C-alpha cells in the first residue's frame, strides 16, 4: 500500500499507479513509454476528463536516483488529483496531467539496494581500459548538448553520454513529449535539494525572451509554497542561480516550445540533503502541491 510516511520501491510506485487506473478508469490511464537500460518500465500516468479544450502538463521525477523526495512528491500529486478529481478546482480539472514519477528506475532501485547516493542511470560506458557505469540523464538531453557543466568522462558524476539522447530513459521522455497528441504548455521536473525554482536557460548565462513571465510565475509559486508549509524557495534562472549545466531536460522542453519549463529543487537546504528523513515527505509534498495549483491557475489565465 502506498503511503507518504515512507519512501517506496519502484514496484510499489508502479503498483499504485496501476491501482489508480483500475479504480478510476474514466479519468486515469497508465502507459509505459519505454524501458530503462535494465529493462524496467517507464510508466506514465495520465489524469484527464477528456475535454478537448484542456491544456496539458508534463511532470517528472527521479531523473537523479538519490533524490528520493522527488518521486515521493510526484506520487503525492497523483494521489491527490486522482482521488479527489470531482472535488478539485476547475484549474486542476481543466488540465490533462501526465506524470512520470521515476525517470531513472534502474538508478532508483540501485539506491535502495547498493548505493544510497547513486545519481546517474546504470548503463555502462567504456573509458579506455576502464569501464564506468552511468550517464547523468540531466546532461543527456538534446538542447545545446555537450556544453558547460557536463563531462565527456564516463566516470564523472555529470557524464553527458556519448551523444544527445544516447540513453533509453532520456530518449523515451523526449519521444513521448514530441509525439504526444497533447500540446504541453508546462514541463515540471522535480529534483532535490536546495529549495530552488529554476527556469531556463541552464546551459549558460542567458535567459529566454519570456524570462520575466517565468520569473513572476515562479515567484507566485514560491509564495504559495511558503504560505502553505513555510519553506522558502529562491527563484531564478538555472545558470544564474545555480551553475551552468547543459543537456538538462528543462532546457530541452523549453526548446520544444513548452512555455513553463521549471526545475524544482525540493527540500531541504542541506542539513539532510538527499537523505531527507521520511517525516519530511508529507510537508514537502503538501506545500509543493500548493505551488502546482498556482501554475494550474496561471494556465487558465493564458
Ligand atoms: O545539476 C542538475 O542537474 C540539477 N541540480 S541537482 O542537484 N538535482 O543535480 C539542476 C538542473 C538545472 N537545469 C539545468 N541546468 N538545465
Ligand atoms: Zn537532480
TrEMBL record:
One of its GO terms (cellular component) is extracellular space. Its cofactor is Zn(2+). Residues 6-299 form the Peptidase M14 domain. The active site is at 265 (proton donor/acceptor). The keyword Phosphoprotein does not apply. One of its GO terms (biological process) is proteolysis. Keywords: Carboxypeptidase, Disulfide bond, Hydrolase, Metal-binding, Metalloprotease, Protease, Signal, Zinc. One of its GO terms (molecular function) is metallocarboxypeptidase activity. Belongs to the peptidase M14 family. This is Molting fluid carboxypeptidase A.
